[in-house]
Amino acid sequence: MASLQQTLLRQISRANRRFGLLEDGDKIMVAISGGKDSWAMLHLLREYRRMVPFSFTWVAVNLDQGHPGFPVEVLREYLEREGHEHRIVHVDTYSVVKREVPAGKAYCSLCSRLRRGILYDVAVELGCTKIALGHHRDDLIETLLLNQLYAGQLKAMAPRLRSDDGRNTIIRPLILCEERDVAAYAIEQGFPVVPCDLCGSQDNLRRAHVRQLLVQLEANNPDVRRSLLAAAGNVKPSHLLDARLQGEGDDDGEAAGAGDGALLSPQMLVRA
Ligand SMILES: Nc1ncnc2c1ncn2[C@@H]1O[C@H](COP(=O)(O)OP(=O)(O)OP(=O)(O)O)[C@@H](O)[C@H]1O
Fold it and tell me: Where is the tRNA(Ile)-lysidine/2-thiocytidine synthase N-terminal domain (predicted)?
């Protein structure tokens, strides 16, 4: 049986072939939060570099946002011990978020917008060609549902995206990896995982709801996550209501109904 690491590397390799994430000569800024996903991404990218016939380098960057008790020395020690080129940047966005967000509301949205702006600037300063974020398959699926259920948008997460100002390219090498595999790998490898609730913010209730919904859906259809991932890569613009897309795609009649066998094909399903 394939090891966890082999499974995850195969999925990174598949994402790379499909979406052109890592290229010869790249200098990747690997964004490290201290959570399981970004540690796994960093470790796996180093392993992946050993497997491929082209060359890329990386610098691990953590933004210490000033959360009380953030164990920045734990991150530094690990990065040094492992020999990763790294930068730890300190900007107290925590105070800003605490000041600006009304009591009882989640901090996450403002916190991540502030973080993004700072990380984009750091990437330019460091001459990085791309920024790698640790989002995985389950982040993508949750975002796809969140946007439909709460924001009226058919939109998930791009594996590779140019920022609006054109200065940065974001990549998500773990986008085909399952969260449970990433979590198990983080335990297996003993990464120094920092909890993400240091800010004391409320949970993002909508995301929690979507997670719960997925668990319920999975009870009836164990393939539901695979199907949602496949759907994100199998868009039929002619069968949507966006007037900007009319006329694109084939005319294959009505949408495939549940149980008619047309919803999934082996090619659409992304299997480990
Ligand atoms: N403080 C930070 N400094 C640098 N990069 C960050 C920081 N916070 C988040 N990131 C990057 O953004 C990604 C998504 O952040 P998010 O807070 O949603 O974390 P997550 O999905 O729990 O992942 P992780 O387990 O890596 O924390 C992270 O995987 C990481 O690449």
Answer: 27-212
Complex-level ipTM: 0.96
Ligand 1 pocket residues where CB is under 6 Å: 31-33, 35-38, 61-63, 65, 115, 119, 133-135, 139, 196
**Which residue owns the Cα nearest ligand 1 atom 29?**
134
In this prediction, residue 98 carries a pLDDT of: 85
Looking at the fold, whether 150 and 228 belong to one and the same domain comes out as no
14 and 31 assigned to the same domain: yes
Instruction: Provide the 3-class DSSP secondary structure of residue 240.
Output: coil
- Total domains in the fold of the chain: 2
Residue 171 is part of which domain span? 4-200
End-to-end CA distance of the chain: 12
Whether residue 173 is found in the same domain as residue 51: yes
126 and 22 in a common domain? yes
Mean pLDDT in residue range 25-31: 98
Distance in angstroms (rounded) separating the CA atoms of residues 35 and 123: 20
Between the CA of 33 and the centroid of ligand 1 the distance, in Å, is 4
The pTM of the full predicted model, rounded to 2 decimals, is 0.90
Nearest atom in ligand 1 to 139's CA: 21
Give the nearest ligand 1 atom to 132 CA: 31
Give Cα separations from 122 to 85, 99, 164, 168 (angstroms): 14, 25, 16, 10
The answer on pLDDT for 163 being more than 50 is yes
